[in-house]
Amino acid sequence: MFNEVLKFIQEWNIEDKLFAITLDNASDNNAMVELLRSNLLEKQKLYGKGKLFHHRCAAHVLNLICKAGFEIINPIVHKVRKSVKFVEGSISRKQKFEEIIQQPGIEYEKRPNLDTPTRWNSTYLMLNCCLQLKRAFESLTQQDQEYTCAPSLEEWEKAQMVCIILKTFYDATMVISGSHYPTANLYFDEIWEVKIALDNADPEVNADLFETIQYMQRKFRRYWKLTWLQISFPVIFDPRFKLGFVDFRLKQAFGSQAETKIATMKKILLELFKDYSQVNIGNQDMAQQTPAPQIVTNASGSYADWDHHMSHNVPSTSEIPSELEAYFSEASNPSK
């Protein structure tokens, strides 16, 4: 695999243009990327000693974690899927269900569509729609004796608890999978929202469900440990946040170990600055004419703690070269 990747890199003449490579979270990729990193470092083609070279695909990792969440409610998902198939099975059933959902007290945003079982996000959307129509399915049980696959009240409640957590995963996946705007600076905040959702999971829930949540937390912590550094740097150069925001979040995430993490991050920042300072960047006029990219944010994200922190603290730029210091000394743009 390494030879094939290197072959295309050389054919496309991009050896000296690579900064990072994003790969699925597969063990085989780790060996390949280390060989590629060593090869490019030997040729002095990587900035910052290649410490930010390997990026794990955030969407792929979130997908793996979500699958663990669905495993615990697979029997419930199966019943919901059969329920949707039942309603869609004939014109008369559709009409009957349409009459039911028009009854007072039933509020919903859209009718459920059958999911694609191999795509967790479509299963989440189906399940979320059906949860809004829970009363309609309960009514259908009473009106149609052939409908025998309705989830129980306890199963609906279990599905509801899982969906509350998975909504954060779904929202994050929708943002970081965008293809019409830059996404590198969005990963940190979206991943942080996922972290908060998992950390705040109710410990009083069903024992089996909480065991699954703990498994999801362990999977997430492993991913966070491997990627916090890579996803921090785009945020540093986002004028809304800069170094202070990452510093603030890392102290929340790592506690007593935060200073060591922050020192590592600043060291790599200085190495990158030194490397890029030695490069003659041309086409500056063209760069100035390039329209500013659309900035996308997570509308549900909360920056209240960050805003409060900024109103009571002055960011430190000690040991930062003058050009970087000038950037970091400027006031951050509004976060909302």
UniProtKB/TrEMBL annotation:
Q: Which residues form a coiled coil?
A: none
Top-level taxon? Eukaryota
**Would I find Metal-binding among this entry's keywords?**
yes
Q: Name one GO cellular component term.
A: nucleus
Molecular-function GO term, any one: DNA binding
Record-linked InterPro entries = hAT-like_transposase_RNase-H (IPR025525), RNaseH-like_sf (IPR012337), ZnF_BED_domain_contain (IPR052035)
Where primarily located? nucleus
Q: Which SUPFAM superfamilies match?
A: Ribonuclease H-like
List UniProt keywords, sorted A-Z: DNA-binding, Metal-binding, Nucleus, Zinc, Zinc-finger
Pinpoint the hAT-like transposase RNase-H fold domain residues: 177-276
Q: Where in the cell is it found?
A: Nucleus
Its name, as the record gives it, is hAT-like transposase RNase-H fold domain-containing protein
